[in-house]
Structures are given as C-alpha cells and as structure tokens.
Amino acid sequence: MNWTHRAAGVSDSLARPQHGATTPMTPTLSPGLEPLFRRLSLRDSVSDEERQALTEVLSEVKSLPAGADIVRETERPGRSTLVLSGITCRYRNLENGKRQITAIHVPGDFVDLHSFLIKQMDHSVGTLSPCIVVYAPHEGLERITERLPHLTRLLWLLTLIDASIHRQWLVTMGAYPALNRTAHLLCELFTR
What's the pLDDT at 151? Predict the structure, then answer.
C-alpha cells in the first residue's frame, strides 16, 4: 500500500493510504477512536467491554479526498460512518443547484448513525477536507443493541445531541446576522 502522510490521532499502522484506498479494520485503530470514546465518556462511563464491542463492529477504514460523498440523499446505507480524521458535512442539494450545509462533523462523530433506524437518507454527507473514516455495518450495530443496552443508550444519545445541534443551527441561521452565525460556528467547533 502506498502511504502518503500521517493523520492526527491515527496510529502508525493506519497512516493515511492514498485517497479512495480501503484497509481492513485492525486492533491498532483504537487510538483513532479516542475522540469518540472521549465524547461518550463525557456523558457516562464506557466499559472496556463496550469499547471492545464497538471496536470489533468497525469493519474497514477508508481514505477520502476533499469533496467526496460519503453517502448520498435517497441511498439506503447498510452501514454508519465514523470520522477518524478530517471534517465532513451534511448537506442538501437545492433546486437552484446550490448546496445547503446543515451540519459539520469532526473526528469522533458518526455522520449517519441515524441511518441505522431511518434506513433511507434524506440528505447527503460529504467531505470538506481529506478524511479518514471507518464503517460500522448495521448488522454489527444491531448486535450491540441486543447485547449492550448501556452502549446502545450512549449511541442513541449521540443522535439526540446531533438533533440538539440541528435545532441550534436553525435558530442561529434564522435569527442571527452573519457575524454572529460565524462566531457561533467557530465556538461549536472549538467545543467539539
């Protein structure tokens, strides 16, 4: 495999492969998962068993260039995507050909965890920078829901936090002038 450069937070064995390349999931991914585990741990403790179960569910790592689609509107993905490095966005294509960004995702974020239950995407997710992502097949997530109710609640909480951020974006976009919207976005990204 041809390695081009290292990604922050990802171990040496997962240095960024060329864009579009995929690698099978390996146990050395754990350092790249720390942003996710840190987010979960802010809400409640995450046991070693839960960390292991989530790590085992993750199936393949993929490097994507800026401007790539991770999942498109109307698709029915059979997996959810976790950002390991880079920045992604949720967006909708408008009738006039423009794109409206509705969310930004950073390392440690599942960009489409809700697709596990909703099934058909009502928006697209794309990369704003070069990214490394890892996939969690929905069959594996289903096994987690059957076996680990505490981890299930934590993952569900992530989708509820996403919904809360969406509500704040609506208020910000509708009520604040451009400078305040920019300040709010910068504060959100800093906090996350």
Answer: 96
Residue carrying the six token digits 């919904």: 163
CA distance 101 to 119: 21
The model's pTM is 0.77
Residue among 13, 21, 52, 2 at smallest CA distance from 130: 21
Q: Which tokens is 34 given?
A: 């720390």
In angstroms, rounded to a whole number, what is the distance separating the alpha carbons of residues 101 and 150?
32
Give the contacts of 72 (CB within 8 A, at least 6 positions apart).
121, 124
Structure tokens of 15? 């240095």
Phi-psi region of 108 (alpha: psi -120 to 50; beta: other; left: phi over 0): left
Q: Which two tokens stand for residue 125?
A: 């997710």
Give the rounded percent of residues in the chain with a pLDDT score beyond 70. 83
111-140: per-residue pLDDT in tens? 999 999 888 899 999 999 999 999 999 999
- Tell me the domains of the chain and their CATH numbers: 3-139 (2.60.120.10)
Per-residue model confidence (pLDDT) at position 22: 54
CA 116/CA 17 separation, integer angstroms = 28
Contact 39, 158 (CB under 8 A): yes
Q: What is the pLDDT of residues 139-189, one digit of tens each?
A: 999 999 999 999 999 999 999 988 888 788 777 777 778 887 777 777 777
